[in-house]
Amino acid sequence: MPAVATRRRHRGAVCAAALLLSTAVLSGSGAAQPSRGGSPVGDVSTVLRWKPCTGEAQRGFECATTTVPLDHTRPRWRTVDLAVIRHRATAPRGPARSLFFNPGGPGGAGTVGLPELYEKFPAPLRERFDIISWDPRGVGQSTPVRCFGTAEEATAWHSRVPAFPVGEEQRKAFTAAYADLGRRCERHDPELLRHISTADVARDLDRLRRAAGEEHLRYWGISYGTLLGATYANLFPSRVDRLVLDGNVDPRAWMNGGSAEEPELSTFLRLESDRGSAETLRQFLDLCGGAPAGRCAFSAGRPAATRAKFTELMRRLRARPVGSWTYAKAVSEVRGGLYTVHPGWTQTAEALQTLWEGRAPQEPPAPPGAPAYPGFEQSLGVLCAESPHPGDPGRYAVLDTLSTARSGDLGHWWAWANEPCAAWPATAAARHAGPWDRPTAHPVLVVNPTYDPATPYGGGRAMARELANTRLLTLKGYGHTALDNPSSCVSRHAVRYFLGGALPPVGATCEQDAPPFAPGPPADGPPRLSR
Length: 531
Fold this sequence. Notes:
Blueprint: E1 51-52, E2 62-69, E3 79-87, E4 97-102, H1 110-117, H2 123-128, E5 129-135, H3 151-159, H4 168-188, H5 190-193, H6 198-211, E6 217-222, H7 224-235, E7 240-246, H8 251-254, H9 267-270, H10 273-289, H11 303-319, H12 327-337, H13 341-356, H14 376-386, H15 395-407, H16 410-416, E8 444-451, H17 457-466, E9 470-478, H18 488-500, E10 509-511
Parallel strand pairs: 4-5, 4-6, 6-7, 7-8, 8-9, 9-10
Antiparallel strand pairs: 1-2, 2-3, 3-5
């Protein structure tokens, strides 16, 4: 979930506040440069004027920049810019309609995520719909949360902070580092920090819907994008046409049930993301152990032996790192590698085997050109300002003990991922904490893998239960979201739903197209960001 995690070999270190994936923010060249926004002379008009994107990764896409109020209750006050991207329908039958997409996070940039995931949308949807995404306020090429003057300064700061602390000395340094980050962010743009909630983004989405000429919303949201979709459905229930929510965040858990009391558990532990990761890791190791080494490099020949091999490798890394690969880095990279089965699981097995042999896995080369602004604080901006969290930094050591007791090694990452919120300087001015059951104009389709390492299957069941009018489609499979772990069965149901409103039968299930470590795994394209 939120974030914005990167997969191993796909990008650099994992952001300590990444949720579901989350996509680390890149400053793509296809949109306008970030802006703080100014004061409008009248009511804000959200208009989309499309032109070809200029970024190499955005070839074939069109980009636009539009304006929305910073505070939707004060539309004549300050504005912010939104960077928007679309791919035109490839074979429309008459005027093309629009389908909006959010790639997750929080902090996921649509100007990056849509080009990366576009080919994974079912072909009939690409033929019939203009697929549109955007960088939410505070993110990427929209008016961004930026707490450092340059990309180099931000990268240098982040390189000194581990994915999670190990031992008392690191705990103190970790807590102090994120307290420093909070002070930096407060100095840069305190107004913006209070106006980047999920509800703010949902109101932006409604303006984008109108700007695209649509009376009702068609939307596919993955990971944190499911929370955005649920929020939209309850703020604007009469404007819902088709919503697919894929890899689900339990909205009540995210908002701590709307309670004003400080929670005992952090956001990700309430969502049980640690348990989802642990269950998926168990499947990874068992399936790897049941495969020959030619298909899973880390296989020890049997599931139990492979699990024991992983435990021993983690013990070794705690005692002594292998090059730059500390215990924390290895745990973080394994967690992120579980998100996408192909090629993530094969690459993760190769990295583990390389570490087992006492060698550091090869790091991906730095992308050419000037470094992009990493944007790790942008996911925190949403998460920490609207989702309740323990305010005492000392509480997170207790949560670390709880999470590792129930979830093993990966529990460390999830326990500490919310600690930066303890020193975050802002509270959202307008958040939606419920209700979640307002009747929508049309039913919502909820999809969730059974072994999702960030948004566990229980989140899908909770979303289907909490919204007023839903149908749950279960993907019996692995990885974070069905869109990123393809199933022809899920695609067929999604196409029928978007084109004609047909829902799957009650209790419907689907299988993934290619199981992990199966003979002849599917070829995958160039490495991509995870959400």
